[in-house]
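## Example record

The block below lists the input lines for one assembly entry, exactly as stored, with component labels intact.
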Amino acid sequence: MSRANKLFGDKAFELLKDLERSSQTIPAFDDDGVRQVLEEIKAIFEENVAQASSYNSSGDRSLWPLLNYRHAALQRNKRCLLAYLYERSKRIKTLRWEFGPIIPGDIKQALCEPEVQFFNNYSKSLAAFMCNAGCSQGQGIDLTNNLHPPKSLYIEVRCMEDYGKFELDDGELIHLKKNSQHYLPRAQVESLVRQGILQHIA
Amino acid sequence: MFIQDLKNDFYRHLVGKRILIVVNYDIDAICASKILQALFQYDHMLYTVVPIMGITGLRRAYGEHQGDVKYVLLVNCGGCVDIVELLQPAEDVTFFICDAHRPLDVCNIYSDRQVCILGDATLEENIPAFETIFHDSDGEDDDEDEDQSGDEEEAHNDSGAGDSDGEEEESAHRAPRRRKLTRLERHEQRILRQRARRQWESERDRIMFEYTQFSYYGRSTALMIFELAWKLSKDNMDLLWWAIVGISEQLLLGKIESGAYTLELEHIQSHVSRLTNKTNDQNTMSASKISFENDLHLVLYRHWPVTDSMRYSRYASCQLKLWTLRGEKRLHELLLEMGLPLVHARQTYSAMDLVLRKEFYSMVERLAEKYDIPDIVYGTFTLSYGYRSRYAAADYVYALLAIMESVKKHKTPEDCFMEASDALNRKDKQLLGAGIDNAKLMHAAIFRQVQSSLEARQVHSAGSFFYYVLQEEHAFFSYPYALGLLAKFMLRGHVATSRARAAPDLPLIATCPLDATQGMCLLVGIAPVREDSPKNFFGKAFEQAAQKSKTTLLQDFFEPSVVQLRQSDLTRFLDALTVLLT
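Predicted structure tokens for the full assembly:
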């Protein structure tokens, strides 16, 4: 049995807690932590292998629960690691929908190399899908344009902050002041809605 | 100028153009703006809605949006002030005014193309004829000028400069005619003309004074916009309900008489029956229905225990004097005769027995005459949709009022305006519920304030009017409408309890400090109890008293009977007002 005074799986748990704390952004990839968990898994596995081989030779079933226990700890570590990686990849996918095909520099630093490749591959498959989806019109639809499927050409929005002048495509100038309500073409104000300056009134 | 055919002259004009809608802070205006927004959305017209509170707000809003819009629609604001002079707009900007405030400013009425007032000119009273107010004074000036230049010509005959050629020709043209009269006669003529002019001017001043003396309210804006929607065949139950809320607000806040309200009821009823028969799902229980029924003037009685509702409604409370002990006993007697057990009366209305609830209205109606509350019954509309929601128009009015005046530190007046606007959507039921709760608190606070003030005799008489001064700012009463409700309740309560014979004829002035840091306080004038018509003379009276006492009065709001002034000037102002009103 391991005489070290630590719990199994606490490092993996810490990884997940860190990720939970920064729930919207992606924190830096904790290379160290992941490596420690992997080493812990390896250590447990070695002990188990040693014990299993001794059982094979001696036939003594008294330490069977200990084997099971180590196996369970090993699997828990594995699950935690997988959860960590999966959650990060989920956030990377939402990155694509929010920011477009290029990752901003500061977020890119937080990702490790395989994750960057994952992002690029995801972008590629999304682009191929969008291209095929709109193939009847001859060009692809940009699905990332609208947050929800658009129901109307114009939407009613309320201004949450002072923004100043905003020019529409046909030259009309709208003065966006806090708490004024406007009715504007959807396509042009979608970006402002996404930034939170305008609030869409259903 | 007046526009009567709203569909062609107003709406068709605006299709495809961008509009600025400036909305005043009152419920009628909010309802009207919601109906307008729905109409504009059908036609995909770009619009911008800006809420404003007073004249400074209007100026600021126009200044910000000045260069962008060519069409401005003013809802319930700006009718009584000269828009062109106030805002100094560019030549091609057109203003459409839809205002329930009267009297309308004469410059707006007689403006040629820039200012259009939506409404029927024949329904307006007492508009002075054009000739009596605006005199084409150019002709007169020309005559006088030529008279003088004729004189000068005679005196300086050698001024043959090029620029006075035209003048020379003209005066030479006229000179033969003029030279027939002697100088003395010309002088006489001028004096006569001047005297006639002065007479005309004094007559004009008298007419203008009579015209602007009383301030009152005309037809509800929301109802007018709803009729436009009807003519465009774009009306539906929602828009009709908003129009009903608009006109109910006018009745409940005392802006129109009940006679005028009853006349409008007939028109609205025809709309209701037409729209109910149009929808084909009226057999489902949960469809939205508007029904007309006779209802009671009890505040929010469906959402409150009956005893509370009776106590906090101004009409019932003042007739039965429910803040005194004897009044409470009379209330119990009334409940006893109605057959309503006290246990049930003290629970929320919806928790009462079904049988009792069904009979409540008929019981009160029967006993109304005996207990001296005959006017407690009036006709109104109820909206029911879904299985649980059933609201009377009055509920909506009070809820919206409470929301609109629930200004807090982190909640600006514009936020409250937007929230009130949202609460009108049927989907946002919780906003309406919150508003009703707030309204309950407000009414309870009003009642408590009235009770304590009447017992402490804080309503003082200043000879020709009563006045009531609140010492410190209050969460509810630092806003115009809440203060107005409090003042009305206070006045009627005082009249009910006082023994002075002249009490029903005296008006009341109530003030409440607005803001301790700036030292401003809000002043509201309420017409006497005996006066039936809601014509209010306080606007002019305040103005003149301020002039006499040389205090700076901020008559910023579009309601002329609500003003702001400095706390320190209060006593001087009241003295001047006393002198004025005796």
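Residues 183-213 of chain B form the longest helix (31 residues). Residues 1 and 110 of chain B are 5 Å apart (CA to CA).
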